[in-house]
């Protein structure tokens, strides 16, 4: 038993033998106690049962107790398994016994102490072995007189029999446990021999002593690290080089107080060869090899050599690494926005404090406006200042500075090269010439060196970046090259922002010029509007309010998808087209049909001739409101449904039939929805940028808009502000156009309507009725021209039109509107009548005396309308020569 495994097996064998002996002894004790307890319980139970059985007391009191009790006792003994059941009288003479010869004999030792008046149990050694006897007294019916006794005896089973029954199981269990221990010992022995390369303990001890001496004698640090990054061994040199604590073994390398990069390298487990690593104030050459390269690595061995003599080289490498890192960071942080000022501020923030203690950026004024500078100039505006507290002594942001010709900024801008002033105290003349008080203050604060670098893009100087140092070492030649590289990267971002500013300014200017600068004050509606361009640039959203004949008004909102000049120009084309089509007084569905054809034609022409962006994606919502009846006709093409706010604050989205966006209709007709709006209701038209963005769905936006509008008694201006405060996205990616119109109804007292029979004789009566109505309105001076116009229009309707014929006269603020409707679709045309013509002269007179006139078609005919101004003096009939009247208006013309 020389091996460790053999000794372990011998120990296990001894333990198992002791365990088996202890188990056997415990088994004997347990068996004895168990049998004794069972015997006591059985004898007591049988004795109690027999003594209290029905008939036992009567039998004991009978003349011949034996004849009655003996059969019962024997029967009880056979069925219960006891050895005997003996009944005897109080004097101790037996009535029953298994051996009939002993019946009538006297029992000695009747009681045990003074316990004869109560049941008692005794143990004795009989001829059959250890036995238990229980004696129970039988009382008379009065409960105090003892009539007799019942004694029941039970022989206790042999402990050896019980042990012999269970001993094989015990021995089997011990053998099985010994077999398992033997197998386990064999496996452990095999494992130990494999891990120790079949070395015995003495050889392992010798090898350990040899390796320990070598490890602690070499002047190279050695670490053994497990696969879980725990330090298993470290020699004295490794402890010295890494300043390891005394209890370093069995701790993870990340828990040894090492720098994060050092701990990460040591615990990486990868193969490393002569990697130079800075650990504290020592420069180490690190080698790492896995313990078992042929299989899964179980750890690694690390060797460390002190190469502190390479410190200077490592310092320069670290500076170069930091500079490269700073340039990389500058590429990420500079130019995050297309804002010139913000880009300049990002340059200053990147440079401080890793390169300079303070940084300033000055740009030429044209650059801030997006223009191109005419050439380098010593006059620049400060746009960024960042650095230590002393940086506040530099010229503040926003100040226009004219640098003296000898200053590094002026020299660098003129030559287009960076300028280094390594000692400001030795060359403070230019600072004194620039600003004596500020120069003295800067020198007192410790600023000692300066680098100024021009920001150049495509050979054009955009401005100058200045880097100041106060605490660090003065700038050198390497710093100058780095500053030029940093400024070159920033200049590209500044120029991109300048170009974007120029394009954005042009697009916004175009957008603003194409949108209405102010909306007309109309009697039909009270309107308010908002337009917000997207953060990425202006787009193609627009709105408009167009007065229509008959005191009606058209409300328009549209959207051209996209941003920039193309979207703004397209929007201008569509808005102009809507104005032109509105002049024709077309219904909403017909107007959208014409606009759809126009967009398709424009799109086709641009794609064929200029290979330009298409106009697909344009949407429009067009509504016509008539204040005389409160009716509103709406049609939409790919646009969100409008919202209607009732006077009580109830909000609903109007179910206007939808159509594809303009230019994509495929020839399908547009549909119009007609409804009547209560007076004082608010009609809300908007573009999708208000209710939909990247972070919010359309349903969420519409629900938010509903809540913002659900307030009664709000003016359109207040409604616009409520909507923007509640629904406006934090960062909108699309334009937003919002138009709110509160409806009005014309005063019925300012309107007059007459049904006209198809009889020329009624014209005179109609003229008289109109004259009386004009007198009621205080417009007597307009009676002559109005009668003339009505006579012509009504007569033409009777002669050329069909019934029903109606005349409507409306006073709308400073206008007098006359409308004659009939059931025909024929339209009169203004022309110069020839001498032989029978007609054509009346319409010429209408055009002479009315301010405007025109025709609009309805579903059941047409309406001829005229409009006269009540503010300007009425047309003087005398102003038209008598000859002209006679030439143009003859009796035959009627």
TrEMBL record:
Classification via InterPro entries: Bact_Sigma-Reg, GAF, GAF-like_dom_sf, HATPase_C_sf, HATPase_dom, PPM-type-like_dom_sf, PPM-type_phosphatase-like_dom, sCache_3
Name of the protein this chain belongs to: Serine phosphatase RsbU (Regulator of sigma subunit)/anti-sigma regulatory factor (Ser/Thr protein kinase)/PAS domain-containing protein
Pfam entry (one): sCache_3_2
Membrane topology: Multi-pass membrane protein
Subcellular location(s) per record: Cell membrane
Alphabetical list of Gene3D superfamilies matching this protein: 3.30.450.40, Histidine kinase-like ATPase, C-terminal domain, PAS domain, PPM-type phosphatase domain
Domain PPM-type phosphatase stretches: 522-743
Organism of provenance: Streptomyces violarus
Domain GAF intervals: 362-504
Classification via SMART domains: GAF (SM00065), PP2C_SIG (SM00331)
CC per GO annotation: plasma membrane
GO MF terms held by the record: phosphatase activity
Keywords: Cell membrane, Hydrolase, Membrane, Transmembrane, Transmembrane helix
């Amino acid at each position: 038993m020389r091996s460790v495994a053999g000794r372990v097996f011998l120990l296990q064998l001894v333990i198992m033998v002791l365990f088996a002996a202890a188990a056997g002894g415990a088994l004997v004790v347990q068996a004895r106690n168990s049998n004794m307890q069972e015997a006591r319980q059985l004898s007591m139970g049988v004795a109690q049962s027999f003594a209290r059985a029905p008939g036992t007391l009567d039998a004991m009191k009978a003349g011949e107790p034996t004849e009655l009790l003996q059969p019962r006792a024997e029967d009880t003994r056979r069925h219960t398994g006891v050895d005997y059941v003996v009944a005897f009288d109080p004097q101790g003479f037996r009535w029953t016994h298994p051996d009939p010869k002993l019946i009538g004999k006297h029992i000695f030792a009747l009681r045990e102490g003074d316990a004869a008046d109560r049941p008692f149990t005794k143990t004795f050694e009989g001829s059959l072995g250890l036995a238990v006897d229980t004696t129970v007294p039988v009382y008379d019916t009065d409960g105090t007189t003892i009539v007799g006794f019942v004694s029941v005896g039970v022989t206790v089973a042999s402990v050896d029999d019980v042990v012999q029954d269970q001993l094989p199981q015990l021995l089997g269990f011990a053998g099985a446990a010994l077999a398992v221990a033997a197998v386990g010992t064999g496996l452990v022995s095999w494992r130990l021999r494999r891990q120790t390369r079949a070395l015995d303990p003495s050889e392992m001890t010798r090898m350990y002593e040899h390796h320990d001496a070598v490890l602690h004698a070499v002047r190279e640090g050695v670490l053994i690290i497990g696969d879980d990054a725990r330090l298993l061994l470290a020699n004295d040199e490794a402890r010295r080089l890494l300043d390891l604590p005394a209890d370093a073994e069995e701790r993870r390398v990340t828990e040894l107080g090492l720098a994060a990069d050092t701990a990460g390298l040591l615990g990486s487990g990868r193969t490393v060869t002569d990697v130079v690593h800075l650990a504290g104030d020592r420069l180490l050459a690190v080698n790492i090899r896995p313990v078992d390269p042929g299989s899964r690595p179980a750890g690694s061995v690390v060797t460390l050599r002190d190469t502190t003599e390479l410190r200077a080289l490592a310092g320069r490498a670290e500076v170069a690494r930091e500079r490269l890192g700073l340039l990389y960071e500058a590429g990420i942080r500079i130019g995050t926005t297309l804002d010139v000022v913000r880009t300049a501020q990002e340059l200053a923030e990147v440079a401080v404090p890793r390169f300079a203690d303070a940084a300033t950026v000055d740009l030429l004024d044209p650059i801030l406006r997006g223009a191109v500078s005419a050439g380098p100039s010593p006059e620049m505006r400060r746009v960024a200042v960042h650095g230590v507290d002393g940086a506040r002594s530099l010229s503040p942001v926003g100040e226009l500075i004219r640098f003296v010709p000898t200053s590094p900024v002026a020299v660098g801008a003129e030559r287009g090269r960076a300028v280094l002033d390594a000692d400001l105290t030795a060359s403070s003349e230019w600072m004194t010439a620039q600003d004596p008080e500020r120069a003295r203050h800067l020198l007192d604060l410790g600023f000692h060196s300066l680098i100024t670098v021009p920001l150049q893009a495509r050979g054009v100087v955009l401005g100058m970046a200045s880097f100041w140092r106060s605490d660090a070492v003065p700038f050198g030649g390497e710093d100058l090259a780095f500053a030029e590289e940093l400024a070159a990267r920033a200049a590209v971002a500044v120029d991109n922002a300048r170009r974007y500013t120029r394009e954005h300014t042009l697009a916004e200017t175009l957008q603003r010029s194409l949108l209405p600068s102010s909306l007309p004050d109309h009697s039909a509606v009270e309107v308010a509007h908002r337009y917000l361009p997207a953060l990425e640039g202006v787009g193609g959203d627009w709105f408009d309010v167009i007065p229509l004949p008959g005191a009606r008004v058209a409300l328009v909102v549209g959207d051209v998808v996209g941003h920039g000049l193309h979207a703004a120009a397209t929007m201008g084309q569509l808005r102009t087209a809507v104005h032109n089509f509105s002049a024709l007084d077309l219904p909403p569905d017909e107007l959208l049909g014409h606009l759809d054809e126009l967009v398709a034609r424009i799109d086709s022409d641009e794609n064929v001739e200029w290979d330009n962006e298409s106009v697909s994606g344009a949407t429009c919502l067009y509504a016509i409101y008539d204040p005389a009846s409160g009716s509103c006709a709406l049609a939409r093409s790919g646009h969100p449904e409008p919202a209607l706010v009732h006077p009580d604050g109830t909000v609903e989205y109007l179910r206007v039939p939808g159509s594809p966006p303009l230019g994509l209709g495929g020839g399908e007709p547009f549909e119009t929805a007609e409804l009547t709006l209560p007076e004082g209701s608010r009609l809300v038209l908007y573009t999708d940028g208000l209710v939909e963005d990247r972070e919010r769905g359309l349903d969420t936006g519409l629900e938010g808009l509903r809540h913002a509008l659900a307030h009664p008694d709000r003016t359109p201006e207040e409604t616009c502000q409520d909507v923007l405060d509640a629904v406006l996205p934090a960062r909108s990616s699309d334009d937003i156009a919002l138009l709110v119109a509160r409806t009005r109804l014309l005063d019925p007292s300012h309107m007059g309507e007459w049904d006209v029979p198809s009889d020329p004789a009624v014209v005179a009566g109609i003229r008289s009725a109109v004259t009386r109505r004009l007198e009621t309105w205080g417009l007597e001076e307009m009676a002559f021209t109005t009668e003339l116009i009505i006579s012509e229009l009504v007569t033409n309707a009777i002669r050329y039109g069909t019934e029903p014929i109606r005349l409507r006269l409306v006073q709308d603020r400073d206008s007098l509107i006359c409308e004659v409707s009939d059931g025909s679709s024929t339209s009169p045309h203004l022309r110069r009548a020839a001498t032989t013509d029978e007609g054509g002269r009346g319409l010429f007179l209408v055009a002479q005396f009315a301010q405007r006139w025109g025709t609009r078609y309805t579903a059941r005919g047409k309406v001829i309308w005229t409009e006269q101004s009540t503010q300007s003096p009425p047309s003087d009939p005398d102003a038209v020569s008598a000859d002209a009247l006679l030439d143009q208006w003859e009796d035959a013309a009627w």
